[in-house]
Amino acid sequence: MSLTLFQMLASLGSLIFFVAEWAGVVFLRRASAKLPWGLMVAGLCINTLASVWFLFAPIIGISPFGSGRAYEWWWILPQFGNVTFGLGFALYGLQMARASHRQGELEQLVSAMSEEMDRLREGNSRSTQSGG
């Protein structure tokens, strides 16, 4: 019984982390990264499903660690969810890094254009003063 209690507490602890992950993913839903966001949501759904299974299976009298082919894929499911979430998170990070780099390039372009406009204004004001 203590092992089952330990398993239930571990699943409950992982659900606490899922709440934080779900909150983060919900706040990112309006971001421009559609595929990475979808991968993160899919990974979280898989992980949440696996955690809920491991939490509630002993309560309803099913051993989540039973034998047979039906139980073998439950061991792979959380790892697949983690890989899916991680892939989406990495793709999102790469997209944000590219956007940040592009923003830096545009800021440099605006700064150079501003300096060029100031230089042209100075040249026009000098030519108007000397010509007039």
Question: How are the secondary structure elements laid out?
Answer:
Blueprint: H1 2-27, H2 34-56, H3 69-131
What does this structure look like?
With 132 residues, the chain is an all-alpha fold. The chain has one domain (2-105). The chain is built from three helices and no strands. The longest helix has 63 residues, at 69-131. 12% of the residues are buried.
Structure in a nutshell:
With 132 residues, the chain is an all-alpha fold.
Strand tally? 0
From the alpha carbons, calculate the radius of gyration and give it in angstroms.
28 Å
First-last Cα distance = 99 Å
Strand content: under 5%
Query: Residue share in helices?
Result: over 70%
Order of H and E elements: HHH
> Largest sheet, described in full?
none
Whole-number total of structural domains: 1
Low-confidence stretches: none
Q: What structural category characterises the helix and strand content? A: mainly alpha
Q: Can you count the helices?
A: 3
Identify the overall geometry. Answer: rod-shaped
Mean pLDDT: 81
